[in-house]
Amino acid sequence: MNGKPRQQGYTVIEMVLIVTIILIIAATAVSRLSLPDITLNAVGDMMAYDIRLTQIEAIGSGKVLRMIFKSDSSKYNYGVAKMRDLTTIKPSLIIMTDAILKYSKTGNLIDTNEPVVITIVDTQRDSKKFVIIMPGTGRVEARNASQILGDMMTYDIEFTRTEAIRIGKRLSITYLSNFSSYDYGIDKTRDLAAIKSSLRIMTDSTLIFGSTGKPLGMKIPLVVTVVDTQDGSKKYIVIMPGTGTASAQNTPEVKP
Asked: For 177, what's the count of Cα atoms within 13 Å in the CB-facing half-sphere?
């Protein structure tokens, strides 16, 4: 036999083609996984900026300025005669909140006694971003579901504490396992499923504030655990004895 046996392996051209195909597949996968989150984060930051700008322009113009958000709409007004359309960023973005923000000429948020949460949904992937505006100062931040959960639960505890002081009576919050809602303050209810339908409380406990605002019957920190039944992640709300101050933690500093 005069012919040489064919060498086993790939040619340079074949290797280049294989590497190119792998890179294309990887780039497509990363794009599909990451781009929606990046887009939502950017939109949340942009909305937070628009709200801050409205606050600043209310001070600068010496006038009361309003922002109006409507459910199933992609548009909202901001600043002085400005309009934002979220579909110019991504057609599947929509607002799922009915709310009016009103800033006084001193920059304070008026006619609002509780945090306002604007929910933005990407209907293509059913992912959400939240923008929270605090009463009084009008402080605004773009948050994800875990962060907004912590914000709202710690606010509800502080609100109940200050209400107990204001009316001079005991007020309590009762948490029940496998429930998504709880009562707080005076005749108010918080439903965590409004943030994410898979959120559940995993703690049975009652937090009682006396007329001085101090928690009653607490000798050790109280830890309220909330679990996301969809992915198993947890959020811990830690309430300290004595002061009743609350903080949201991803890992509790004290064990439940």
From this structure: 4
